[in-house]
Specification:
Six copies of one chain form a homohexamer.
Chain A lengths: L13 H14 L6 H6 L3 H15 L6 H14 L3 H13 L4 H24 L10
Chain lengths: ~130, ~130, ~130, ~130, ~130, ~130
Amino acid sequence: MATIELLTDENATPEACAVFDDIRATRQTDYVNNFWRAMANDPATMTACWDRLKQVMGPGSLDPLMKEMIYIAVSVANGCEYCVHSHTASAAAKGMSAEMHAELLAVIGLAAQTNALATAMQVPVDDRFKS
Amino acid sequence: MATIELLTDENATPEACAVFDDIRATRQTDYVNNFWRAMANDPATMTACWDRLKQVMGPGSLDPLMKEMIYIAVSVANGCEYCVHSHTASAAAKGMSAEMHAELLAVIGLAAQTNALATAMQVPVDDRFKS
Amino acid sequence: MATIELLTDENATPEACAVFDDIRATRQTDYVNNFWRAMANDPATMTACWDRLKQVMGPGSLDPLMKEMIYIAVSVANGCEYCVHSHTASAAAKGMSAEMHAELLAVIGLAAQTNALATAMQVPVDDRFKS
Amino acid sequence: MATIELLTDENATPEACAVFDDIRATRQTDYVNNFWRAMANDPATMTACWDRLKQVMGPGSLDPLMKEMIYIAVSVANGCEYCVHSHTASAAAKGMSAEMHAELLAVIGLAAQTNALATAMQVPVDDRFKS
Amino acid sequence: MATIELLTDENATPEACAVFDDIRATRQTDYVNNFWRAMANDPATMTACWDRLKQVMGPGSLDPLMKEMIYIAVSVANGCEYCVHSHTASAAAKGMSAEMHAELLAVIGLAAQTNALATAMQVPVDDRFKS
Amino acid sequence: MATIELLTDENATPEACAVFDDIRATRQTDYVNNFWRAMANDPATMTACWDRLKQVMGPGSLDPLMKEMIYIAVSVANGCEYCVHSHTASAAAKGMSAEMHAELLAVIGLAAQTNALATAMQVPVDDRFKS
């Protein structure tokens, strides 16, 4: 259960419905996922967040699949169940193979381990990494 | 200051020195960074960790630069100062451009934001993300 | 499922039951929520925690609703599902409006984003913030 | 040391300098803090972030000081040294008294403790918190 | 639901099945828990992880029960629901009493609180702790 | 630099000074570390925290050294630099050997890795772990 109502096209504001429509058009699907139905309670934040997401996650120096995988990495480290599920689904839809998923997880696991070790040992940053 | 001594080639064990040598050979540099000098206090864990790192971070379905960027993403989310510095330096050495760095940061920032929002709203995972 | 038994008024110790009673009297409700039924397994920690909670969350320089909202913010950042739910319910009971909730979430989301960006860029603290 | 250059008014782009100017005008000070000088490396993200910050942190159902205190709470839980310093300074500038600061810290500490306990015991969310 | 298939003895690779068998032999039970059935999708990481776990969690300067309790502490702080459950079960199987569990939780809760307070106050590390 | 003044015996309140004295008597040293000098700004929270610490960290089903090591584990996972340093020093003072420290770090690193993997794969908790 959410701490906030998941709004439908019937009870969301026109501003929120316009974002629903843009999500549908951008993704070429009728489905609007629960995150946005929850976000619809605050149309201003919803709009800012969706606009930003479209800008950030599109093609650039990094391709969209790579960005989804980075998104998964952050979501895992932050322990966000919803985001791990939704972005793993997005990455799969964008072509992440089982091999790529396995390598992503291996890097995430290794990084988590060395993050913990570096913190436990309070390793000082090498001067050469500071330039 | 570290919570553990940073070992030199003089006071590390032969097993740890062998890892130092392999680090030098693999990276083609004489420099061994502080993390490994701290890890040298426990040669068994050091060896397991270094062997794993060579296996995980090498070429595969994801290229090494991509893996470094995923490593940065995890390290940022885990708040590991040392790892953020060392892997940003590694990524730069592997060709991360300023544009790629900017896009990486934009994805990390956006993910952190939506992770927090999804957690705050306790959004239930859509059935379609579960298959 | 909890990793520990949720104790009832029948199987909790007298010390734990005394806390149950004080919770009921303080909140003016018969209901004792699951957190305290789990905490009842260790009456000493339960008592210390409940006494502290009464002292900390009462009126002061900050009003109780404001404190609940700060509690939500911490719970979100720590990814505690139980606490996000229970303190969102508490805040609502203390008068948090939909607008206040929306603003709280907007601040939490923004802070999470800039926390990540500041960590990723390892921004040095300005001298003027240190005094 | 940052992982990115802190840009001055001389080497930042015109778009970034326009944000510097807006920061100065909004805060009525000549000083632009390090976070924004680091963000200036990516003018698009910088602009989006600053625009959002102005919108979110201004007066509303919650007053600006309250928002700064929520920001501190999130920054502490996320372990962001820079943000803890900068937002504690901002809150002080907006009138946070020593008593308010003490109460803020007491709530943060208590929440961190019960977050950990609820997670350790995996307390199931009460049905009544789900509506 | 997992983001990856939980493999059975029928559809896992021979390499993964060999780890299943070693898990059964080591633990003297027929049961293989879900974590390893998920890990079986990447036999190389699975093998490295299982080998490391056998090495790290066995007897040494710290006894295996103590190690399980440290594992729980880390898992709680990282907010990993699965690991809190599985390692609490393991610790119980290795003889953790209700008193030991209560003391473990008390330490975890106290540490979480003072971690937050030290971070909020940005307490500088005492010189004497650095040697 | 702290976000709060580190109080001396001269400018702390009598209530805070009484805690300073109890710290000295309990630890049999003249030295009062920075955490308590910062906490002295809020004598009520300081007293509650110190009383709790004496109660929790003393001998019980777990010995004091074991508790210090659990404290380190939590502090590492929470990324608290101050607490990692101070409790590593405390553990050393209570007899933690280099071997014990190495084993502690190995468990912390392994747990961090499997926490991340379990979260990334969203492994469902086995029924048998729920009883």
